[in-house]
Amino acid sequence: MNRMATIFSKERTVAPDHFNRWLAPPASVAIHLCIGSVYAWSLFNAPLTRTQGVVASAAGDWNLSQVVWIFTVAIVCLGLAAAFGGRWLERVGPRLVGAVSAACWGGGFLVAAAGIHTQQLWLLYLGYGVLGGCGLGLGYVSPVSTLLRWFPDRRGMATGLAIMGFGGGAIIAAPLKEFLIRAFYRAPEYLGDVAEVELVTIEGRRFAETAGGLQEVVTVAAHDVAQMIVPGPEGVYLVGTGSVGILATFIVLGVAYFAVMAVAAFAFRIPPPGWQPAGWAPPDESKAKERMMTRRNVDINQSLKTPQFYLLWLVLCLNVTAGIGVLGVAQTMMTEIFGSTLPHLVDGAFAATYVVMISVFNMGGRLCWASASDYLGRKRTYWIFFALGSVLYLSIPLAAHQVSVSPSVVWLVYFYAATMLIFTMYGGGFATIPAYLADVFGSRFAGGIHGRLLTAWSAAGLLGPLAITTLRQRAEIRAIRDLAGQANPETFRERFGAGIDQLELLIREKTVTVAKLMDIAPEGVPHPGASLYNSTMFLMVGLLLMALVANALMRPVSERHYVPEKGGGPD
Length: 571
Fold this sequence. Notes:
Growth Hormone, Chain: A, 5 strands
């Protein structure tokens, strides 16, 4: 036990003399690449909502709102764990924190896998959401604090390097998850075309007569094929047969992430007390004031008594809220807006690639914007984020509307480009905030203060998905009701085995969807998928404008909050 304590002790992580500080980033990036896979969560949406139906959601399957909330819980727990882990990190060092992070993140996948196997949703919330979220928070703060100590002369670049991995985690995770899901996927039993199978509707659910008696089925219409995990023929499939591949995927990922993160945690090194880069000196007083960079330090607890902490908390919370809800449904959003209007281009593989590209630009934005902030200044960098971001979010509903009226690749390209630029600034906001904190409060306690500030991420993780799923669900139900009102009542009854008067029950049991209604809609009726996210985008603009105001109010910390000079010098 004592040996284990020694191995994990902070003293064992202190680097020897003449240690090359450029050897520190790889371990930090490795951990962030693993936990950054949370940004590819949207690839789990379709499989988790089809664990029973496989090719489409069955009545007993979890719905999108339930699944997205797992991602939300993980982000909430990330912020809470980071708030606790920031102070703990200062005391025990990054190695122990990194090792615990590895156990929580890898173990969380395994607990979630048990939930998938037993069809217990609460185990997914406990495993991936709570346990995994704690692993996210602990794994997030330890590399940031470490690199801030190694690079006091390049704070923006240092935090950009650390957090770049988190933004880029989905670059590796997205194709890996896609590969594993397809590798373990097994198609359900196919009963034939809809016209060949005798179907009945009982309490909103669809059933077919088979050799084994009356059994529940799902139907795949023409508009559903593009959203299938592995494309197959239209028709009727037996519920409870086949496998969507998600269970084995969670097990493989849990083991792999634990192994990589555990190795990286043991590679952590921190500089000796009083160390600073050769030939470097803190900026002179006049330059520091001009860039709002203090040469002194504010204690972790004292920082909570300053208005600057809460202004930066708002800046982070509002910026993250504007982006995180979209991240949680990125693949779904791309498919719903463009899958119906440009089906020859936008299929499941295209949407998966879109998620990868989000990660590429998210990662690139973290390094580029954070490094640029060393020259632009943190405050001016956030001005750019919020002003330009507002314009881009406003333009997305326009692009979605135009493609529904006149399908054209031009609007797809514009949407792609606009969202990619948005995600560079979303990632850049994350990467620049630790440097902003170090400028305002000093670098000595920046890691702990950063952990406290990440509670803003928890709030954003709750507000963002809540906003986007609530607004989208309302828009979807309105669209279904509108389409049902335009359908021929006899055709509706023939297709769904019940009258329009039972529409609410059919919606609840997932028998009636937008895609299935489009198959019987009168010619010329536009697909409503393009408008499902309009209200969400308008809300995001409002949030960014509020963040712009909070950033404008930032001023240097009052003299009374600083640690006395004798104990407040740099490490």
